[in-house]
Amino acid sequence: LSLDVSRYTAQTNPTQWGHIVEDINHSVEGGLDANLVRNSTMKEGAADPPSSWSAVTGGGGTGSIALDTSVPLTAANPDALRLDVGQDGAGQRVGVANTGFYGVGVAADTTYTATFFARTARYTGPLRVSLEGADGTVYAAASTGATSGDWRQYTVNLSTGRRKPADTSNRVVISVPAGGSGASLWLDVVRVTPPTYGTSGELRSDLMQKLAATRPGFWRVPGGNYLEGQTLATRFDWKKTVGPYEDRPGHQNDAWGYWSTDQAGLRTYLDMAEQSGAEPLLALFAGYTLDGTTVPQDELQPYVQDALDEIQYAIGATDTPWGAQRAKDGHPAPYDVRYVEVGNEDFFDRTGSYDGYRFPMFYDAIKAAYPQLQVVATTPVTTRTPDVVDEHYYNNDPAAFTAMAHHYEGYSRSGPKVLVGEYAITNGTSGNPTGTLSGAIGEAGFMTGMLRNADVVMGASYAPALADVHDFQWPTNLVGFDAATSYGSPSYWVQQMFGANKGRYVLPASLTGTDPSLSVSATRGDDGTVYVHVVNPTTTAVTTQLRVAGASAISTSGTVSTLTGDPDARNSITAPNTVRPTAARSVTTGARFSRTFPASSVTVLTFSVS
Ligand code: AHR
């Protein structure tokens, strides 16, 4: 393995490795949105009584629940949950319970915040909010102030103690205390969250921590098919996702088959990127939906204006209308958006409208208003020259990705840059939404090629990022989670090995005398640290001499970390650490040293040069 540290062939990009987050597999609704309560606005499936909710009675008490639209909280949220208390039960409460997203995670020594709108009839007094086990064990409880006949928002903090439930079969309960016989209670926009990540107020900590630990440079948000929707009515209509939660109507996420409250709206998507130290790469709806609808040319202008308004929301000054709305939503500073993407996978539009008029109309308007922005096309176009073209690669054969380690070598250096906005092995299996080590090794081979060709590939994001292990629509994802915990797949660890070990300069590196399926990439940081990634997809360990040329001094020790194991092994929610990289350990380095790269492995080796 030869390395030359005296020169570089390309500079890596701040955006080299990133994430795409759209609402698929409950990535956001029930995932990154930390709200424990499912169907918090009572609209899911238009069910009566609202789904995920049930009446709670005890001691012979009676009560029933229903969907009630006769006392709207707001125009956007007219659907309320109504509890009619019959008899309170021998000194016990009557209430409603929510079973969350496939359970409710309750942690020890944690303070949860509950906020919701409520009104009552034939009862004025406090409501009791609690986190309870299926057996009725109360882990935390608190009472609101007195209710009245008017809608009011209530906020209480619920602190758990040392005891924590054994599983996620818990529920959130809101109840009318004893003495409420004959009362009615209406509830809407119910949120119960543990402490959240950063300052956004919505983001689930363990998921954000995992994604941030890969040191992403960008987040491509909000999709993906989710951006498009099946129809114009069900696209990501960003203006309906900002402002107070109670004024957001939500929408049927018919790209992936569940209700989205849009409580995690545009600001939250931008926050995800910013709060993990990355820049948002903002995907704009471009007049094409998954059912094949294309907005005609003479009707497209309002959608172009919508995209300009969206960019203004993200980066406009606070004296612009949408910049002011962003400030009202709690984020006065503009987000650091440098790239916007026009649409998603418009190669599926067979009418030619993308190249014909949709891309040009968006491109011209964006460049005129925001000349500093780089515009990404979702497929090659001829009518304009995009700054970047987005390419997507899915394959269930790891060897296909291994072979792509040289894919970008023949690309033009003078054309648009490439964003690999989605790629992943799709070798998932039923019951487990994450893939195998062999899949991750294939992806790692592809990543060495993308890194060696960083002058062409400005960024890449594995897709999808997140999946609820109880309800996923895509077979193979980066991180699996349930209501309580989460785990990284082997692919996740590969992302981290590359993301957290990246220098600024791409060094010439080559492997000779080894199986051609092995691949290598090397980068050097400004501080002289050299990062070498070696991917061995074969079933044989390979020992090779590393020869480092072009340095006046080379450290005599460095570090090595290796991801290896059974190529068919996966991680899971119950066995999260089956495949994990070894902790970095010290190794001897120098101008020449020998290293063995195990069968089925990804290795990151570091040392320093001057
Ligand atoms: O990543 C899953 C889906 O794959 C995306 O929503 C879409 O862009 C692609 O087809």
From TrEMBL:
Alpha-L-arabinofuranosidase C-terminal domain sequence ranges: 421-601
This protein's UniProt keywords: Glycoprotein, Hydrolase, Signal
Spans through the membrane: none
One of the record's GO molecular function terms: alpha-L-arabinofuranosidase activity
The reaction(s) this protein catalyses: Hydrolysis of terminal non-reducing alpha-L-arabinofuranoside residues in alpha-L-arabinosides
One record GO biological process: L-arabinose metabolic process
Span list, region Disordered: 557-576
EC number annotated for this UniProt entry: 3.2.1.55
Entry's family note: Belongs to the glycosyl hydrolase 51 family.
Protein name in UniProt: non-reducing end alpha-L-arabinofuranosidase
